Structure formats: C-alpha cells, structure tokens
Amino acid sequence: MERYKIIKEVGNGSFGVVWRALNKQNGEVVAIKKMKRKYYSWEECINLREVKSLRKMNHPNIVKLKEVVRENDILYFVFEYMECSLYQLMKDRLKSFLESKIKNWCFQVFQGLAYMHQRGYFHRDLKPENFLVSKDVIKIADFGLAREIVSQPPYTDYVSTRWYRAPEVLLQASTYGPPVDMWAMGAIMAELFTLRPLFPGSSEADEIYKICSVIGSPTKSSWAEGLELASTINYLFPELGGVNLSSLIPSASKDAVNLIALLCSWDPCKRPTAAEALQHPFFQSCYYIPPSLRPKSTTIARTPPSAGVSGKRVVEQKCAKKYPGSLLNSKSVDNITSSAKAHVSLSTVTGVQRRLEMSRPDGVNEKTNKNTARQPKYQPPMKNNPRGMYMGKGKGNGVGDAAEKLGNMTIGPGRGGGPRNPALLPPAPPPMKAGVAANRSSDLFTGRSQVYSSKVAG
User: Fold this and answer.
1) Residues 428-442: pLDDT tens digits?
2) Are residues 270 and 306 in the same domain?
3) Which residues neighbour 364 within 8 Å (Cβ) at sequence distance 6 or greater?
4) What is the pLDDT of residues 234-247, one digit of tens each?
5) Residue ranges for the binding site?
6) How far apart are the first and last CA of the chain?
7) Region annotation Disordered: residue ranges (predicted)?
8) Which domain holds residue 38?
C-alpha cells in the first residue's frame, strides 16, 4: 500500500472505511476501501463475494475493482474513483431531475444489469447509495451481497434495504433471482422523479402495507404463489385497491409510469428483464442516431444481438420454476467463463502482503484454461430487436454500424434498514400520509453514515 497516498476519508461504515487516494506511480485518483475485520489467509480474501463477482465483470456501468491487497492481515480494495453516489445527488435536492437525465441514468444502469445477469450474478442490494456518479456516467457498486444465479438455495431473506426489497423476499421466499433487482429499479426510478421513496416502510409488515397501498393487494390471479408464501408464514394481506401511479409521479411521462408499473409487479415472472427494459418505449430516444452518423450505405446492417438471453427465452426460463432461483441453464452458464489471467504476486516487504491486480485487458483477470475463447464485447440490446418484449412498438428497421458504436453512448442533457422482524404478524398500520419522516443514510462503498428526512410519495 506504500504505492498510494491517502488524500482524505470519504466514507466510514460498519464494514470498513473508504479513502480517496493517489497512485504515486501514475497519478491516478482511486478509492481505497479498508476492511475493518482481519483476514488471515489469501484464500479467504479472494473467495469474498465482492471479489469473485467483480473479477468476472468489466462493463462501463459497473464500478471497476482495480486491485485487492492483503497486508499484515488487513484487506484493501482499490476501486476506480467516482465523484459521488446517486443518493448524495438526491438528498439535498429541491428541484426534480429532468426526465432526460433520469432516462440517461436508468439506461446505463439497465445495461450494467443486463451484463451482470447475463454473467450469472444478481446484485440483491440496489439502492441510490450503491450507484456512483461522475458527470453523466453512473455505475453499479457494492457487490457485497451479490449472488450467483446458479447458486443453491435457500437464500437469506435479509438482503436489500427494506424500501427497495422485493415482495418475494419480504415474504421469506427461499429462492429468488434477478427479478429482485428489477423491483428495486422500479422503486428507484419513481424516487428519481419525486425525490421521495415510493415504499417507505418502517418495518417489514409496514413495507408490505405500503406496497399494497400503492399497487393494490395481490390476488390469486395476479400472484397466487405470493398468497401461498403469505399463508406459509401466517400473514394476511390487507385489502387495498392501490392508486394510479401517474398521480404519485405527476412529472413522469406515460412511458416512464408504464415501465415503473411493470418493474413493480407482484409476480417476479411478470417483471421485465434488464434486457427487456432496455427495449421499452421509454428508452426509444436513447437509440436515435443523428443523420450525420447514419451509415451511408443503403444496405441495412444486422442489428446487434440482445444482451444475454433473449426476452422470450428469459421469460420461459424465468417462469419454469416456482421462483426464478436459477434462471440460466448450463448453456448460459458457459458464458460466465473468464478470458484473462489474474496476476497474484507475493511481495517481500515488511509484513506478509499479497496482491491481486485487475489489469483486465478485455474484462476479467482470472485463471482460465488456455482454450477459453475471448468473450465478445458487450452489445446493448436494440429497441427493434425482433425477439424483444416490446416488439412492434416504435418504428424503424435495422440499425447499422453507427448504432453499435453508439450502443454505450450516454444521452446528454437509516435507509429503511433496521433489525429484521421475525414474523409478519403485526396488525396493519394506518395508511401512509404525506410528510412522514424516515431515517436515510448514505455511504460510498461502505456502511451508512448520513441521515435526512424523507417525504412519502403522494
């Protein structure tokens, strides 16, 4: 760690402290996360979920883990430096964000999620604190709760921060998958428009009540499996009809409200995948190609393939089991194989130090077989993909090479946490009212440290 000069502390939480630092060798500004607990073996370090998941991913909208260092039984993560979190941009803001900016951020996040899910991981803790922003670029961070889609259940039920926790997790489902990330994105999208949480529950029972008061209570036709889950833990849903989302999010366009409603569907099988969300009409303008950049040839080029599995295939796989605990079959899992080598070196400096460098020539630094093929560069799904969920909406035929070049281009212009309630038995609380205060906290890569008073949507 002598190669880095600490500039200042930028975060402090229960798991570690984060510093802004300078690489003395190349002058690069980085973020260093120092873990508070001791690590007595290198194997223990490289088997951490955050390390295992980030080593397999290289995407412009996923924060880069540059290096892992263990020195004197202390573990350090060296990340690329980002200016602030999305939460920090939201917490003191008085004026709503422009829809174009929200669209730009969400378009980038869904690209990162599509890439992540394709490679067999889902995040499980999406919230504004875990999105890092620099200028117009947004990246997904904090993979401490990330899980492999093919991992064996049962999964822990205390995952994401309560306000963004999917209903199947609140009802203690033993298996779940990427749809929990999509639910969280629906709640976050709504919050970006209103600067107020959509489901600010003060407990798990209250969280379900808040969800019912917004989207209406589930029925046998809308989510029969959810009613079975509730029955298993002796929970009875309140009978509420819900409200029109447009009245709660008046500044949002019809397409934005429609996408939020789809993402916040009770049934995980009815939520769009990240690849399908990118094909929603809300993002139609993100695929516009200026005439000056359109291909001059009259031949229509082949449209780039969708990220990961096509929409139809994903829905079929997603609904094949009671809960989408393992969405990818063995063929899809083959895509998870890495294509570069990790450089692990043992230094002779004072105190035992081991370092894992993430040089990532094409994305991943991990020991693989020599016969492993190099993974193709990730291509975001195009709006007019013939197999997409929203086929037939919007106009246009194929998109040429310029579209591929612009695929990743951005358009210009106490957070529901707390100890777990073991049984969802308390009587339903009174309906939510505007002006209810709730603790919120923020962090950069680490635990939560800030508090502000939030208003309830509506």
Assistant:
1) 545 444 333 444 444
2) yes
3) 55, 56, 57, 58, 338, 339, 340, 375
4) 999 999 999 999 99
5) 34
6) 50
7) 361-386, 411-458
8) 4-81+339-357
